[in-house]
Each structure stands twice: as C-alpha cells, then as structure tokens.
Amino acid sequence: MTETATTAGLDWAAARGTGALAQKMGIEILEFTVERSVATMPVEGNTQPVGLMHGGAYVVLGESLGSMSANLHAGPGKLAVGLDINATHTRSATSGIVTGVCTPVHLGRTVTVHEIVVSDDQGRRCSTIRITNLIKDAPAR
Question: Which candidate in 3, 28, 44, 63 is catalytic?
Fold first, then answer.
C-alpha cells in the first residue's frame, strides 16, 4: 500500500464524514484504503453502567469501518448498504481506547464482506465483527 493510496482514502473518508453517531462516540479514522481501514474509539463515554465497554459500541465501530470501506470499494454512483452484521465479544475493555482494524473477506460487484477486529490498548482482541453489505446504484439527488 502506498502513502498516496492511504492519503487518498483518508481524504475520501474526511470528505464523506463518519456520521453523527460515530462522531458522538469519538471514532477517529487513522488509516483508510480498500484493503485495510483502522479507527480508534475511547472507552470512556461508551460503557455499560458497570464500567465495561458496551457491546453495541464495538458494533458501531465495526459497522462504521465496514460500511465506509464497502462504500469506498463500490465507487462513484454506487451505495453500499448493510445486509447483515454479527459480533462475538471476547473481552471487555474498561479504560483507554479500542482500535478497530477492518479487512475485506470478499469484495464483489454487488456484495462485500468485511471482518473487523477490535482490540484494547494491550492489543488483546475484544470483539470480532463481520458485516455484509449490498452494493446498489446510489439514489438520484
């Protein structure tokens, strides 16, 4: 992957935006290409009442990365929309930040599948998320 590809992907993501929910949750995109995207999210503010990272917060991070990656792959005039998402939570972060790394499993003309691995500050896997997106024509504006 070239630095130019990484910069172009980050520029695309910045111009498109992450959406209001991702902004409220503090998601920050660090790397963004069709082959790999990376984002962080703080644990603070995204916890259950007992202080553990909320499972739904992991899923928001995963869906944000997977859907945005699918849309980058889809290209101009196309729109990727979620068909299915599932998550397996294997550890609970309690402080610091978590990092999501999104990689494609399948990049087709009409369907994409991405896996997102979310890890804590110590590099321990907290959640594994898989999202399937449908690529269709973007609606006329």
Answer: 63
Residue whose tokens read 């111009």: 15
Q: 69 and 103 in contact (C-beta within 8 Å)?
A: no
Higher pLDDT among residues 42 and 8, named by residue: 42
d(CA 10, CA 5): 9
Measure the CA–CA gap between 112 and 87, rounded to whole angstroms. 17
DSSP result, 30-91: EEE-SS-EEEEEESTTSB-TTSSBPHHHHHHHHHHHHHHHHHHHH-TTEEEEEEEEEEEE--
Residue the block writes with tokens 């790397």: 31
Encoded amino acid at 126, one letter: C
Mapped onto helix, strand or coil, the DSSP state of residue 2 is: coil
22 SS3 class: helix
Query: Does the pLDDT value for residue 1 go beyond 60?
Result: no
Task: Evaluate if residue 109 carries a pLDDT over 80.
Answer: yes
Catalytic (active site) residue 63: yes
Residue corresponding to tokens 């599932």:
86
What's the whole-model pTM score?
0.93
